C-alpha cells in the first residue's frame, strides 16, 4: 500500500467517518474553502483505482465506501514515519516527541502506564 497524498487522506478521513457516502456528502463534510465537486470526484476515483475505495451504484449515483481500514493505514503510516525519520527506532521517536512536544505530567504518566503494561505482557 502506498502513502496517500494529503488530498487523498483528507477524503479518506471523511469516508472513514461517514462509512458510506456520495461525492456530494463527502464534499459537504470538507472544510472551507471547499474543493470543486469534480476535484473530489477525481480523488475518489483515484482511490478506487488504487484499491482503497469501492462503490455501489444506484442509477446515476454512486455511494463510495473504504476498503482500507483506518487502523491499517495508521499502522502503516507510523511504521513509515519511524523508518524514515527515526532509523526504525521507536525509542528515538518517543524521545523526539517527549522533547519537542512539552508533554504534561499527566501525558508522561499515561505513557509510562502504557509502557509498563506492554512490558508486563
UniProtKB/TrEMBL annotation:
The keyword Nuclease does not apply. Keywords: DNA-binding, Transcription, Transcription regulation. One of its GO terms (biological process) is negative regulation of DNA-templated transcription. GO terms for molecular function: DNA binding. Pfam families: Penicillinase_R. Belongs to the BlaI transcriptional regulatory family. This is BlaI/MecI/CopY family transcriptional regulator. It comes from Marivirga atlantica.
